[in-house]
Specification:
alpha/beta; TIM Barrel; two-stranded antiparallel ribbon; 10 strands; binds glyceraldehyde-3-phosphate; binds 1,3-dihydroxyacetonephosphate; binds zinc ion
Length: about 300
């Protein structure tokens, strides 16, 4: 099986990106893998600190191993937004393929110091390290920032040289969660180009990249939900980034949540007497699979790349 290094280079050469999807249970994992199976795509399966707490390490590792056995795809396990050296060390020791140390909220020097510490530890065990510079707006369980602070291209160069990180997450206008923009999506392509000029050999990562499909928002709202003004990054923008930029990994969590909740909410409203959760979950797995297949194919240019 080809490794992460291979896909990282291949994605850059061939103009596609690797979808990085968060999973929190068997249903989300199965839906993501089924979608990747249909589009024949390599994928990065991400577990956040919150996800690690929710599932517990044994479930995470065994679910991941089961997914690899079941689907025989190039699947890589990644720690998403590790906020401390200890949680990154824990993921490395557990056998994750890749960890993110997110020191983006720290002062520059402290971010450098801790990223370097994670890099030194992870590299001894052959584990890939993603770091972050700049701050994304948005609020999630353990990831929050009030305002966007774009990545400074000059600082990015210094950061990469000092830390030796393998990839860098950049802040260019996206944000986490379902409420990304007040009006239209605004991505700073100019800043991205500057970053790419400064660190031409560093693979880049885009967080907060969900598209927040309005069809899911509508279904949620028609079935008891209350998502007002939810807006994401258009798939066309992601496609442009996939084809033209040095971004090789694009993160999606919110869209999976929306897809799952829309399907389950609709089912429950229509089947008031049903108490077998497998019925709703089977539909949710199928909807996630369809969503991921389409995302890999249409937005990420990642079909048939295994
Ligand atoms: O970027 C963050 C991910 O969406 C994880 O969110 O901390 O709610 O699991 P979480
Ligand atoms: P979204 O909230 O846009 O899905 O972003 C997910 C993410 O960046 C996970 O690290
Ligand atoms: Zn993120």
């Amino acid at each position: 099986m080809k490794n992460l290094e291979f896909y990282l280079k291949n994605a850059r050469e061939k103009g596609y990106v690797i979808g990085a999807y968060n999973f929190v249970n068997m249903e989300t994992l199965k839906g993501i893998c089924e979608g990747c199976h249909r589009s024949k795509s390599p994928a990065i399966l991400m577990v956040s600190e919150g996800g690690l707490e929710y599932m517990g390490t044994n479930f995470v590792m065994n679910l991941f191993e089961s997914a690899k056995k079941e689907y025989k795809l190039p699947l890589f396990l990644h720690l998403d937004h590790g906020k401390s050296f200890d949680v990154c060390k824990k993921a490395v020791d557990l056998g994750f393929d890749s960890v993110m140390f997110d020191g983006s909220a720290l002062p520059f020097d402290e971010n450098v110091r801790l990223t370097k510490k994670v890099v030194t530890y992870a590299h001894k065990k052959g584990v890939f390290v993603e770091a972050e510079l700049g701050v994304l707006a948005g609020v999630e369980d353990k990831v929050s920032a009030k305002d966007n602070l774009y990545t400074d291209p000059q600082k990015a160069k210094e950061f990469v040289e000092k830390t030796g990180c393998d990839s860098l997450a950049v802040a260019i206008g996206t944000s986490h969660g379902a409420y990304k923009y007040k009006g239209k999506a605004k991505i700073e392509f100019g800043i991205l180009k500057e970053i790419e000029k400064m660190i031409p050999n560093t693979p880049l990562v885009l967080h907060g990249a969900s598209s927040v499909p309005q069809k899911f928002v509508k279904i949620i709202n028609e079935n008891g939900g209350n998502l007002v003004g939810a807006l994401g990054t258009d798939a066309k923008i992601l496609n442009r980034l996939a084809k033209e930029s040095h971004i090789f990994k694009i993160n999606t969590d919110t869209d999976i949540r929306l897809c799952y909740m829309a399907t389950v909410r609709k089912f429950l409203k229509e089947h008031g007497a049903e108490i077998d959760m497998r019925k709703a979950n089977t539909l949710a797995i199928e909807e996630i699979a369809k969503f991921v297949e389409e995302k890999n194919t249409k937005a990420f240019e990642n079909n048939g790349k295994i």
